[in-house]
Amino acid sequence: MSVDGVVIGLMRRRHLRAVSAIEQSVNPHPWSQSLFAGELRMPTSRHWLVARDNRQVLGFAGLMWNVDEGHITNFAVHAGHRRRHVATRMLLAQFRDAIALGITQLSLEVRMSNEAARSLYGRFGFSPGGVRRGYYNDNGEDALVMWVHDIDGADFGERLASLAAAMPVRLVREAT
Ligand SMILES: CC(C)(COP(=O)(O)OP(=O)(O)OC[C@H]1O[C@@H](n2cnc3c(N)ncnc32)[C@H](O)[C@@H]1OP(=O)(O)O)[C@@H](O)C(=O)NCCC(=O)NCCS
Question: Using a 6 Å cutoff on CB, does residue 88 contact ligand 1?
Answer without folding.
Answer: yes
